Amino acid sequence: MPITRLFDFAQNALDNFPKDDFLVTKKNGVWKKTSTLEFVNQGNKISRGLLKLGIKPGDKIGLISTTNRTEWCIMDLGISQIGVITVPVYPTISVADYIYIFDDAEIKYCFVSDKELYEKLIDVQKQVKSLVGIFCFDDVKGAPNWKEILDLGEDDATQDEVEDLMKSINEEDLATLIYTSGTTGKPKGVMLTHRNLVANVLASNPRIPRLKIDYKELKTLSFLPICHVFERMIYYLYSYNGFSIYFAESIEKIGDNVREIKPQYMTVVPRLVEKVYDTIYSKGTGSGGLKAKIFLWAVKIAENYDITKPKSFKHIIADKLVFSKWREGLGGNILTLVSGSAALSTRLNNMFHAAGLPILEGYGLTETSPVIAVNSFDKLKIGSVGQPLANLDVKIAEDGEIIVKGPSVTKGYFKAEDKTAEAFTKDGYFMTGDIGHLDEDNFLFITDRKKEMFKTSGGKYIAPQVIENAAKASKFIEQIMVVGDGEKMPCALVQPAFDLIKNWAKIHHISLGDSNEEICNNEQVKARIQKELDQLNSHLGKWEQIKQIELTPDVWTVEDGLLTPTLKLKRKAVKEKYIKLYNKLYGHSA
User: Fold this and answer.
1) Tell me, what's a Pfam family for it (predicted)?
2) Helix, strand, coil % (nearest 5) of the chain?
3) Phi/psi of residue 493, each to 5°?
4) Is the peptide bond before 370 cis (omega within 30 degrees of 0)?
5) Contact, 229 vs 75, CB < 8 A?
6) Which residues pair with 336 in a beta bridge?
7) What domains can be seen in the chain, in order of their start residue?
8) pLDDT digits (tens, 9 = 90+) for 526-545
9) 532 vs 492: CA distance, rounded Å
């Protein structure tokens, strides 16, 4: 059957890849499996139940979950196949942002995962006229439960109405509104049609590496927020290929879950890759003695690995002694990790390839559904984000900005014709806001965010993201923000890797004190981090070199508003929070 609407993926999975463990969520310590048939049947129940509730095509329904879970996917299916528009929202945003999004989208009902979110949304409901009701996936005392909708739809006498609505839905119809988290200003509702997402799934599909493994054996672990278009598109892609989709319990339990499930595929963000490597490094060097020496020897081999050449004899030995353990730590079956959201360190990418854990780096935006380009096993260049998808027309504008046109590009922003007009060129190309170039083999390389580039008082342009990504390869640096717009030189605010620094201090008999503030005020700590940056500076132009740093005593998080939900820096928020440290860097008065 041709796939033109999002809900077609479910029927395709049932027709071609029926399995007992299509969706799997851990509840009370047990992995609860939902078969493909049960998934489709429950989706139909949700559709019938919503229609009995008075929901009509074009209405908006919010979906918010603290973790990815089976219920979210069932709701997504049931909502989409009756022409209703999903509005997936991050669980970590503020009440003010919830109110803005719900009011802007005119959300009628909302489904949330747990008690904490339910109580948060009760406060929102009081201030949003359109919001009629809130349902909870978990059993929460006093809260309407999503099973009430399933019960409403138990009688299949109205299935003909569902089928008629499915037939009436066009690929150009709006399927979802995704509000960009943004690093500044109010969120914008990105309008994505069925065609946008379906086109992106089908064009991305050839980039998936495959081995001759029965589809019934193929598993994935999903943990990046499914409300984000990257993981959501990947979810449809998994469905299209008949993979079993296991949902991780939490970011903290990924290590345990991956060893239990032993998946072949996972999506990652660069920060997770960095944390995985930091854990590997700490374990590899922690035992000391001969084992640590062998580990560091293997690391050197990985750093110098050339993917275009056969593995050396030393590499084969290192694989048996060291790299095989890296793979075991990720379940032992990984075929590939797919990385998006931000630039990945070339050094780490190379090392993971050397260790038999190939990372396929890609690039895209919410507005492009999301993939614009992605590497594949057949066509790969480390440091690039791969070649553009075959159905997209990607160009580099005169100022270096990447612009794109194609079937997965949004129609625009909801209720914001002015912002839509600003986002496109006169001839219809979407302006990504990213600077990059295409090489002679049509591989795309990202330089920086156009809006994040700044100019020093000496007139030199700085691309901070490139420097930051290189700096975060250091195990001493958890987060870093390069600053200096309009100043005489670049400097940086640095969040140290506190746990690692405590271990380092213990080994070197350095007294740090008990608090993060004391760690940040310790001159030896500051000198050690500066040493890491001095090494980086040796590879930068004089005008780009970080001249001074200040250490921040807090861990930068999504919850405190310093990072977006995809772990990108909220530059304005970071600068505002640490304005005293910023002023100290440049000798400004408060």
Assistant:
1) AMP-binding_C_3
2) 40, 20, 40
3) -100, 130
4) yes
5) no
6) 265
7) 8-213+244-250 (3.40.50.12780), 265-449 (3.40.50.12780), 454-586 (3.30.300.30)
8) 999 999 999 999 888 888 89
9) 13
